[in-house]
Write a structure and sequence with these properties.
The protein is mainly β and 107 residues long. Helix content is 0%, strand content 61%. It has one domain: Jelly Rolls (Sandwich). It contains no helices and 9 strands. Strand 4 and strand 5 form a beta hairpin.
Length: 107
């Protein structure tokens, strides 16, 4: 089994969309999810969902408002995405929130 520690950035939009999905032979351990409000004047909310391919979906947070020039660390621990599970993010408005993801991919 190979382990790869990695990360990525993502501009969150109003389209509830998958930002990270475990492939058919992967397990992903989410280590950190930080959401930053980059807008100069407006607060904006974020919703984060774990969509399970063979189980019950769950919300990590629901419409949590992030003030201007502030950030939110969503994870208090770790979340595992099994094969074909995904992390979905949704924002109140486009061009206001960005996500920074840190995770371990095991193949």
């Amino acid at each position: 089994m190979a382990d790869t520690l990695t990360g990525k950035g993502y501009a969150i939009t109003t389209t509830n969309a998958s930002v990270l999905e475990a492939g058919g032979s992967e397990t992903i351990t989410l280590i950190g999810i930080t959401i930053a409000n980059i807008h100069a004047t407006d607060a904006a909310w974020v919703t984060a969902d774990v969509v399970r391919s063979g189980g019950t979906n769950s919300e990590l947070c629901h419409q949590i408002s992030i003030p201007v020039n502030d950030s939110l660390d969503i994870l208090q621990g770790k979340v595992v995405l099994n094969s074909s599970d995904a992390l979905w993010l949704d924002a109140e408005a486009d061009n206001k929130l960005e996500a920074s993801l840190s995770y371990l991919v095991q193949t």
